């Protein structure tokens, strides 16, 4: 019998007999074995799963003498260790461990967001944070126990996470950046798969605040998040893109990416953005970055602004946009949306199940950061 959160769940059990020679094998007919064995409760148990969903059917062994030799190849048998519960194949360990890594990490709201989401969907897991500098991710993972099932990856580790991942989703392959590492499948030693949920986070955040599909997107910055914004622009339906950077060389990678996925792309310096007309402006510049110019034409046209940086808040760009009464989507909206996608990967929630919990889960996460679920900011606290 296996106990889960105080509830008793009946499971068929088999007492495993000691593997030893019978006391008088010369008196045993043919290949029968003697009947002596250990008393119940003296040795480890084998738990037979009763055809539970996602499990293989139980395969019982008629030939007792072959049980020890064949057990490892029998998917219907799970050896139960002390204090271990049987969970689904997707998350095989009791109370699995996830967390956020990067540097600096003290300001991260990921722990609070994930814990709120886990509470809604009933996912029993831990989530911590670890400060790791550039180049330190591989050593961290080598020292991690089997209970470590996934990581939310922030700067400066997204490129390193990409190289560590055994498999990657489309967004990660395109951008060369991984912000999510997770063990796919139920094996304890399964390799880490990689995903880039920043792309989907940008798409979801913009769609929550945009009234129409954008034709042109202006992206400020040329780093890893800018590459995610490029892919997001294509996923949103845009056909053209402008990259604004300090020096044109910083945008070479993002510009190549944009062309490879069918976007018409221009590259300008940040002091040449005033006259650019756009439907959506995505700033990927670090918080507090001074601007050499402002995208005044885009603001005058009522373009939606998504400022990915949420600390310090508000930025000079956000102040200008709100003063111009143009729509602003808070950077925390992108954080919530991409974290929700991570939750799905960590907890192995399929599309049908997610449809039943998505609204409540994202609402709980928006409550953590104190935002309306649209993510739209219409005024500033000191306004």
Automatic annotation (TrEMBL):
It comes from Labedella phragmitis. This is Shikimate dehydrogenase. GO terms for biological process: aromatic amino acid family biosynthetic process; chorismate biosynthetic process; shikimate metabolic process. Pathway: Metabolic intermediate biosynthesis; chorismate biosynthesis; chorismate from D-erythrose 4-phosphate and phosphoenolpyruvate: step 4/7. Signal peptide: none annotated. GO terms for molecular function: NADP binding; shikimate 3-dehydrogenase (NADP+) activity. It holds the Pfam family Shikimate_dh_N. The lineage of its organism: Bacteria, Bacillati, Actinomycetota, Actinomycetes, Micrococcales. SUPFAM superfamilies: Aminoacid dehydrogenase-like, N-terminal domain, NAD(P)-binding Rossmann-fold domains. Residues 100-181 form the Shikimate dehydrogenase substrate binding N-terminal domain. Residues 1-39 are annotated as: Disordered. Keywords: Amino-acid biosynthesis, Aromatic amino acid biosynthesis.
